[in-house]
Specification:
Elements lengths: L45 H4 L6 H12 L8 H7 L4 H13 L3 E7 L5 E7 L42 H12 L12 H15 L5 H9 L10 H11 L21 E3 L6 E3 L7 H6 L5
Helix pairs in contact: 2-4, 3-4, 5-6, 5-7, 6-8
Length: 288
């Protein structure tokens, strides 16, 4: 017996020209031609397939990971060899899935002392199965129904005058970093944390282009697990010194006029042009 899903959207029906449409025109939009699967299929929720924030690559990777058998390798190197997208884009997509709860990656130490990454694919974020297979049960479990707390980002320098204009210029620098390297894709929360650090650089007479080059130059070849933490470290460790002190310009000296001989008393005085000295001018009658 087929199981009906009342939350699923009804299938769109193809409209036959002329049926209930006097003009006989076919309406725009997709028409589904569906066949019921009986083997080799995977159930994927619409909350993933129609996610409003995930990229198309992240959605596709999530569907692939949910479709493979348990124990299949889904590390960055294996996925890059399986798909045409490179390791940089795949790493960014995996971080998207991790941020939205569709993927959990933890590092564990094996009995031999080797550190391995354990990957758990979640087909419904926020919900965990009541039981886990013995081979994949963690050694210690604390608060299994709550996500692990996010490690705080390192502190960044603070500007002396955090004006809204300066902070907005800093955010613009941070949001543009992903155009130079997709691994530097930042969330709004990360950008808000890093913006004062960039503002402190801009406050030291550096242009946005110079700050961008300092943050994106000589990046490591391996994937950046926490790009925001990497940028926070660079902002603090490579903070340039303040610009040299420039004393305020002193006022220009008053011009020194040449010596003139007074036409009234032959006394020398300084003036821009020949004439009478101050004493002789005061003895002159006032003009009517």
């Amino acid at each position: 017996m087929d199981t009906q899903n009342p939350s699923a959207h009804p299938h769109a029906e193809s409209r036959i020209p002329g049926k209930n449409h006097p003009d006989g025109q076919r309406t725009a939009g997709v028409v589904h031609d569906n066949v019921r699967h009986t083997e080799s299929f995977t159930v994927i929720g619409n909350h993933l397939l129609q996610h409003q924030e995930l990229s198309l690559l992240a959605i596709g990777l999530a569907c692939y990971i949910q479709s493979v058998r348990q124990g299949t390798a889904v590390d960055i190197k294996t996925l890059a060899a399986r798909f045409p997208e490179g390791p940089t884009r795949i790493a960014a997509a995996l971080r998207e899935l991790e941020a939205h709860g569709y993927l959990r990656r933890t590092r564990e130490r094996t009995p031999t002392g080797r550190i391995v990454t354990r990957t758990v694919s979640c087909n419904r974020p926020g919900h965990r199965a009541a039981r886990e297979t013995p081979s994949h049960r963690p050694a210690r479990r604390t608060a299994p129904d709550e996500p692990a707390p996010r490690k705080r980002l390192p502190a960044v320098p603070q500007p002396s005058c955090p004006s809204p204009t300066l902070l907005q210029a800093a955010v613009d620098v941070l949001t543009g970093l992903r155009r130079h390297d997709p691994r530097l894709l930042l969330s709004a929360t990360d950008a808000e944390h890093l913006a004062p650090g960039v503002a402190a650089w801009l406050e030291r007479d550096l242009t946005p282009t110079a700050v961008r080059h300092a943050l994106t130059g000589n990046l490591p070849a391996e994937p950046l697990i926490r790009p925001a933490a990497f940028l926070a470290h660079r902002l603090a460790a490579q903070l340039p010194p303040p610009p040299p002190f420039r004393p305020p310009a002193s006022p220009a000296p008053e011009p020194r006029h040449p010596l003139q001989t007074c036409d009234g008393c032959d006394r020398a005085f300084r003036a821009p042009a020949p004439g009478r000295c101050r004493d002789c001018r005061t003895d002159l009658p006032e003009a009517a």
